[in-house]
Amino acid sequence: AVVSTQSTGDIVDIVDLYTCTCRSESGKLLENVPQEILETVIPKQRGTLVMLLKGEHRGQIAEIEDKDSRGERVVVVTIVDKEAVTASFNEVCQYVGDAVR
Predict the structure, then answer these.
(1) 14: closest CA among 99, 97, 101?
(2) CB 72, CB 56: distance < 8 Å
(3) Please, which residues have CB within 8 angstroms of residue 82's CB and are 6 or more apart in sequence?
(4) Which helix (H) or strand (E) holds 61?
(5) Taking every pair of C-alpha atoms in the chain, what is the biggest distance, in angstroms?
(6) How far apart are CA 63 and CA 74, in angstroms?
C-alpha cells in the first residue's frame, strides 16, 4: 500500500524506474504517478509480506520478522533464499500481489 498527497492505494504496475500506475482505495486507476509523491506503508504484523525496493535484494519478496518503529527499520527474511535483511522503512513496502510462500 502507498500513500500520496492525494489518496491511499496500491501500486499495480511499474512503468519505469520513476513512475508507476496505482489503484486508489475507491478503485480509480492513477497512471504515471511519480515515485517522489509516494510514501510506503509498513505493515504492523510479523509475518506480513513486503517487497524490497533497494539494494542487493531489490525486487525480492520477504516476510517481516521484526519492526523497529523508533529506528524506522525492519528485519525481513527473503522468501526465496531465506536470507535475513535489515532495511529502512523507505526500502520496503507491503506486498499485496499473489501469495509466494
Answers:
(1) 97
(2) no
(3) none
(4) strand 61-68
(5) 37
(6) 10
* 39-82 pLDDT tens trace: 777 888 899 999 898 889 988 999 999 999 999 999 999 999 99
Identify how many contiguous H helices and E strands the chain contains and give both numbers.
Answer: 0, 10
Question: What's the sign of the alpha-carbon dihedral 15, 89, 95, 65?
Answer: positive
pLDDT digits (tens, 9 = 90+) for 5-36: 557 788 888 788 788 888 888 889 989 988 88
Torsion of CA 47, 53, 56, 57, to 10 degrees: 30
Rounded to the nearest angstrom, the gap between the alpha carbon of residue 10 and the centroid of all alpha carbons in its chain is 9
Contact 42, 21 (CB under 8 A): no
